């Protein structure tokens, strides 16, 4: 028998509406699972009182006949979202003890829809990382392990806690954010579904900023249907975010027909990079065959500037980060360093930031500072922005030729061991993002779908990339792929 | 482009991050590695390309220039490491 915390959003919704379970029971099941999950280090702040209060309110609402799809659904919230009165630190010591006086728009939307917040989820500090190893809470651990091997694996990053929590059934779904792959790569590493919507679909207000022109919120779920349901609740125009799109949010779930006959799926040849591991190439080929069998037309396409996406990203994102993170100065919130005799305000800034920021964040802030500094602005930052325009144009060209969606790998490997990629070699870690950053630069929606297991029993996923604002159509492609792949594996419980 | 120790020190100061003198060589090496990786961008012909600022071709929304929230100094100061008499407090700035 399925435990309540193992349900999908859609299953729980249907049971709630039929009166066969309650939001309180669902919430209790999740809270129990969370309390037994310390080795995963996914939930870093638990909010059982808020959860039960909201669950009781949801039950009352459902009884009164008003039950939106997310009503009574227990979810986890990535620590990067500001939640009123609840610690929100973006996994950074510089925000130690920060309890916002306000609620982010996305979490408010979820609350308004009746969903239940269980607590805050681990992540890479300020969402900078691909392994969830850079966190003031310590690393999050993947519930998946290699067959016959107890090596702890990364759940991916930066939304590693969200991915681990969903995969381990600690919650029905979770929020993530995706600046360069931070929803899709953890989803792929944990056999879950995650969508990064079109830039502007979800409000960034109250989401602690990393790189403002790239950051986008999205759901991480157990199925494509759940992603459609939850995205619908998170999205919408917000006057408090000037980049939030003032366009209607369609009923994404209603668009899931699974019929992709006649659709044109692009296979970008530049993603077949040198040294692509055979298990990744194989799963990509399998996914391609699945979509073809579902009646889609497979088209070889070219995105010629793909190779330059990663270096362009690692100019643009740190540049924006260096500016966004200037606010952590020890004055308004969080940590302030203890000052020595004669220390002035400059020493206060420098010591506070040295103590408060983790090493990867310091490195990216300094790279950003450098590429924006006098004499280098044109050589690095402006050039990267021009290359970014070319990368976006590549996608526009293929969509203009009638491509409906693009199928590509998500990361160059399955989940790797914690500590396997050396801290002293930042470029090696950045290579994890080679397939994911392209669509952040172009602002496009992308969805990760689990497709199979590798020889060691670890999940492998693929991403579908869609046209701007057409998340509904994109999710329908993902739904067809999900049905064809029939991925039902779950991690064996060891924690 | 290789970053020397003096440049690393300068960048750290511009970023207002205290870096110990003995940590500067390693930092310079890592920053150099990242910048070398970025050198690939020089291979791209960007002649006549407009630098991209926004991914969606929309005009930023304007709002009325009015106070929407105010009179809440306690809430503004509630997270400050040091707040006194309704103000953020910092070390002495002017002698």
Automatic annotation (TrEMBL), chain A:
Broad enzyme group: ligase
Coiled-coil positions: none
Domain Amidase, chain residue ranges per copy: 25-475
EC number, UniProt record: 6.3.5.7
Pfam families documented for this protein: Amidase
Active site (catalytic residues): 78 (charge relay system), 158 (charge relay system), 182 (acyl-ester intermediate)
Keywords tagged on the record: ATP-binding, Ligase, Nucleotide-binding, Protein biosynthesis
InterPro entries hit by this protein: Amidase (IPR000120), Amidase_CS (IPR020556), Amidase_dom (IPR023631), AS_sf (IPR036928), GatA (IPR004412)
Signal peptide per UniProt: none
Catalytic reaction equation(s): L-glutamyl-tRNA(Gln) + L-glutamine + ATP + H2O = L-glutaminyl-tRNA(Gln) + L-glutamate + ADP + phosphate + H(+)
Function: Allows the formation of correctly charged Gln-tRNA(Gln) through the transamidation of misacylated Glu-tRNA(Gln) in organisms which lack glutaminyl-tRNA synthetase. The reaction takes place in the presence of glutamine and ATP through an activated gamma-phospho-Glu-tRNA(Gln).
Quaternary data: Heterotrimer of A, B and C subunits.
Family recorded in the similarity comment: Belongs to the amidase family. GatA subfamily.
HAMAP family: GatA (MF_00120)
Protein name: Glutamyl-tRNA(Gln) amidotransferase subunit A
Organism: Albidovulum marisflavi
From TrEMBL, chain B:
Top EC group: ligase
Catalytic reaction equation(s): L-aspartyl-tRNA(Asn) + L-glutamine + ATP + H2O = L-asparaginyl-tRNA(Asn) + L-glutamate + ADP + phosphate + 2 H(+); L-glutamyl-tRNA(Gln) + L-glutamine + ATP + H2O = L-glutaminyl-tRNA(Gln) + L-glutamate + ADP + phosphate + H(+)
Key words, A-Z: ATP-binding, Ligase, Nucleotide-binding, Protein biosynthesis
EC number(s) recorded for this UniProt protein: 6.3.5.-
One Pfam family it belongs to: GatC
InterPro entries: Asp/Glu-ADT_sf_sub_c, GatC
Description of how the protein assembles with itself and partners: Heterotrimer of A, B and C subunits.
PANTHER family reported in the protein's UniProt record: GLUTAMYL-TRNA(GLN) AMIDOTRANSFERASE SUBUNIT C, MITOCHONDRIAL
Function text: Allows the formation of correctly charged Asn-tRNA(Asn) or Gln-tRNA(Gln) through the transamidation of misacylated Asp-tRNA(Asn) or Glu-tRNA(Gln) in organisms which lack either or both of asparaginyl-tRNA or glutaminyl-tRNA synthetases. The reaction takes place in the presence of glutamine and ATP through an activated phospho-Asp-tRNA(Asn) or phospho-Glu-tRNA(Gln).
Family per record: Belongs to the GatC family.
Protein name: Aspartyl/glutamyl-tRNA(Asn/Gln) amidotransferase subunit C
